[in-house]
Model the fold of this input.
Amino acid sequence: MIAANKQASLAMIKSDVSVHRTLIKTLSRPPGIRKGKDDRSLYISTFATLLLIPGVSLAQLSGPTLPVSWLNQNRYIEVSTGIHSQHYQEQDRGGNILDTETGNQKIINTALRWQFEKGWFLHLQNSRRQGSTNYNGYLQTGAINTPYSALSGNSATQYGASIGYALNNSTLVLIPEQWQLTPLLHYSQHHWQRDLVQYSETYDYTTAAAGVMLQWQPLYGTVLEVQTLQGKSQSAKVSVPAFNFIATQPGGSYAEWQFTVSQDIDAVTSIASFKYWHLMASYTRSRYQHSASATVNQLQAPNNQQSLSNWMVGVQRHF
Done:
């Protein structure tokens, strides 16, 4: 009975050949190869194409799907790349904006996820981004501030770890088989170098948060995932070597949410060499805040906040 359901499900999934071919062609095209389209448009169109797969296939399904193996779905290594959108601003104590950094940068991400048989869940992640942003603020000459705009360089790395306990039909029978809910504890470390016209700054800080991840497998080989985190950004160490300035900024609020869709390539193509490979696309939005530092050498790091977004596409090798 299970084998018959599998054949029926796979036949229905394969019936919309045009959608699946569009997906493979889109992901195999290197960024920037289409004239008139920037990288961000390519990632967004790929993301949208991946979203069409479950909708099209679900509309064709008339019978039950295969049993879900959340262990297999959550045991993988991942490599992804995309566009990082940054909006950073500094404010005085009255809330007036002193300067902003906005723009898009290239980002690459690697991850390892492993769900254990008894329900424990581990996710390790590393990302690096680099590129230019638009600086709008002031040039400082003594006590005189002159309005100024320029491009500034940025490079940043982030390391993160999440642990949790997966609640699904195997660990809690009340949960439907196609769903999994995982409460999470999250910790991350950040390093950001900001190269301005007059000097360079480095920021080092950590975040701690709690949250939840919800996963749904609407049909064989397709997983939709939503994750949300709420917590605190810990004290940030700010360093400006050119001015012999080192200070600490008190932490503030931290929030993040992420939406991911992954698709088993073998479920779409039946190509044996793709048996353990999945395509993925994700969108992440996060927000950090830090308060003003104490005055050191007549200088102060002001209140700041960041709103960051990542559009990512990549591949996963499952185990």
In short: The chain has one domain: 69-318.
